[in-house]
Design a protein that fits this description.
By secondary structure, the protein is of the alpha/beta class. The protein has helices spanning about 50-55, 90-100, 110-115, 150-155, 175-185, 210-215, 230-240, 255-270, 280-285; strands spanning about 10-15, 20, 25-30, 40, 45, 65-70, 125, 130, 195, 205-210. The chain has one domain (about 1-75, about 85-115, about 175-295). This is DUF429 domain-containing protein.
């Protein structure tokens, strides 16, 4: 990986919440070097559609853009995304297309119609005590849901990933992942999504990130990955060789997650080992994808 392969680094803290605009979405950007990362449109309440437009119209050249979400569902553990259903997609891009098609009438890139589908819902745990008959029972894989290979790698690093099939709980990422897959479908052919698309020799690339990995690289534990004041954020930025941000007092953790992770991508993007983790086979890349930084 050339040291100058990427010139800009973006981190997007994503949200799968209902509605059009979300406090939980934050976009941060930094350039190569050591200047502090900055929020894009600070104070703005983003919609998911606006993030898509920003990626397609305003993303600086040669940007590595990370999304804090899962870019696919578990496949390797059961030989399919939705085993037992004849329409289960064969790879990640087919999954994105299926979600987008089933949710064509869902506003704001939401994904309710996908998980409400009678065959799909059998695999998910949803609110209101609705647990599909094919969602692993308690005692089977801990009742947590199915995990991708990359999420197993995260766990081995000390993280506590959640299954994208679990849509219940404050820490779940399933909703944001499914809405994000609708966005990724719209990027197809316009921005590559690594590793589902191969890494091109030049140009911008989208990938999956996990903000806890950035916090751990900055010296924080997985259990203390959230930073809610400028002092903690600036200390973590300094540990990554980045200048700090002006300000003091509280900061929303969505913003601090995005800011720190943009700075981390700047330090990590040129490490060849992170683009070739041992468990990332061609089949895993095609079906499950990977979290950049998971080893």
């Amino acid at each position: 990986m050339r040291a100058d392969r990427f010139r800009h680094f973006a981190a997007i803290d994503w949200s799968g919440a209902a509605g059009e605009r979300h406090r939980g979405i934050a976009v941060a950007l930094c350039t190569s070097g050591s200047a502090a990362p900055e929020l894009v449109r600070p104070g703005h309440r983003w919609s998911r559609g606006e993030v898509l437009d920003w990626l397609l119209e305003d993303l600086p050249a040669d940007t590595l853009a990370g999304f804090d979400m899962g870019i696919s569902l578990a496949f390797a553990d059961a030989g399919g995304f939705l085993p037992g259903w004849s329409e289960s997609p064969s790879d990640a891009k087919a999954l994105w297309a299926q979600i987008d098609r089933l949710c064509a009438d869902d506003p704001h890139l939401s994904a309710t119609s996908f998980v409400d589908h009678p065959e799909v819902s059998r695999h998910f745990r949803r609110h209101g005590g609705r647990q599909g008959d094919l969602f692993p029972a308690k005692g089977e894989r801990g009742g947590q849901g199915r995990f991708r290979v990359t999420e197993r790698a995260q766990a081995a690093m000390g993280c506590k990933p959640y299954s994208n099939f679990n849509l219940v709980g404050a820490a779940q990422v399933g909703k944001s992942s499914l809405t994000g897959m609708r966005l990724l479908h719209r990027l197809d052919g316009r921005l590559p999504v690594w590793p589902i698309d191969p890494l091109p020799p030049a140009g911008s690339v989208v990938t999956e990130i996990y903000t806890t990995l950035a916090a751990m690289a900055a010296g924080r534990s997985a259990g203390r990955s959230k930073m809610r004041d400028y002092a903690d954020l600036n200390a973590a930025l300094g540990a990554l060789g980045s200048a700090g941000l002006p300000g003091s007092g509280p900061i929303a953790d969505h913003a601090s997650d995005a800011l720190l992770t943009a700075a981390w991508l700047r330090t990590a993007a040129h490490d060849p080992a992170l683009w070739a983790p041992p468990a990332l086979t061609d089949e895993i890349a095609r079906t499950e994808g990977w979290t950049f930084g998971a080893r």
